[in-house]
Amino acid sequence: MPRAATPQTTTSGAAQRSAVAVASAIGEQVFAVLSGRARAESVRESLTATVLGNLMGLRLHGARHPDYRLRSVHACPIGDSAVEACVVVGAHRIRALALRIERHAERWVCTRLVPVERRPT
Q1: What are the structural domains of the chain?
Q2: Model pTM?
């Protein structure tokens, strides 16, 4: 009996690059606010009001250190109108932020921002 083909759920290279580009752009803006290099108001158009409020209350220990930087961005397109991403930031202590970014009209907006907590070892 022939085996049924398993469905492949692959993302095209172009879609993956676009997802990473969108996540990088918004991730850089969020990181600039967290590191004190930009004011929260400067990213208002890229965040929902809820995410902006959460961002203003979020603190990353050591984020103002000059060596603290955005280290990597991992993103996955969810259809044509959403991207889910993880932004890795840090210097000596590495932290991650999970983001959901959705297309609203002609622009991309971060609709969810969650710091990823370290699990106890």
Answers
A1: 13-116 (3.10.450)
A2: 0.79
